[in-house]
């Protein structure tokens, strides 16, 4: 899934950028609300109006030209420009759920991302989904077989460029279940705990995986019981 970047306009962050004709020239503004199929209420801070996304290359040309005999055509048009990763700018003609179709014929899966352009200018860029990363390695832990043991994986262990929600899971060597070494993991609370009755001393390998639903990363640490 590709995230569409949000834009900053002045002190207002996180707006979806759109180009439209304000009566004198083409301006880059932002979407306030969707009011119908491919119809949006937009503003540039001065002019607020309802526009329909350009549906053909002729309409796109009329809008972006900003001058000439096509003023009637471009008067109520807008365009959300998308640059597919590694490609050229295209013009969205319909956003539906998490899918977008473009005038140029592309069909992409998208979601709003967190990257921003402080100047609030240019195209709305589609960037490739990035794998999570290990931001802070999990330190090795120690415990005793005679006492209870629990450890909460720090919330800042993993990071994700696209700000995707990460799902954690844990196994031991060979992708074996943690129960085989006397441990359990609660993904909701990020808590690793020793099972009652676990009495084997030594170093236990814990492999924690963070997934964004498509890509994943792992971090490995040891819990040594004495």
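Q: What amino acid sequence fits the structure above?
A:
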């Amino acid at each position: 899934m590709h995230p569409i970047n949000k834009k900053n306009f002045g002190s207002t962050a996180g707006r979806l950028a759109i180009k439209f004709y304000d009566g004198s020239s083409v301006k880059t503004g932002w979407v306030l609300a969707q009011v119908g199929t491919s119809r949006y209420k937009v503003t540039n801070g001065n002019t607020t109006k309802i526009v329909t996304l350009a549906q053909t290359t002729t309409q796109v040309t009329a809008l972006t030209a900003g001058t000439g005999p096509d003023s009637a055509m471009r008067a109520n048009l807008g365009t959300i420009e998308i640059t597919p990763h590694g490609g050229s700018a295209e013009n969205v003609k319909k956003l539906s759920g998490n899918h977008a179709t473009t005038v140029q014929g592309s069909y992409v899966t998208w979601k709003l991302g967190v990257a921003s352009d402080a100047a609030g200018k240019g195209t709305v860029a589609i960037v490739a989904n990035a794998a999570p990363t290990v931001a802070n390695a999990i330190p090795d832990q120690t415990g005793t077989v005679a006492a209870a043991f629990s450890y909460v994986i720090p919330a800042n262990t993993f990071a994700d460029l696209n700000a995707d929600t990460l799902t954690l899971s844990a196994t031991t060597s060979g992708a074996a279940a943690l129960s085989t070494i006397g441990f359990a993991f609660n993904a909701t609370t990020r808590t690793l705990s020793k099972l009652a009755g676990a009495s084997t001393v030594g170093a236990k390998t814990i492999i924690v995986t963070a997934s964004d639903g498509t890509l994943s990363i792992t971090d490995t640490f040891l819990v040594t019981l004495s």
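Q: And what stands out in the fold?
A: Confidence is low (pLDDT under 50) at residues 114-127.
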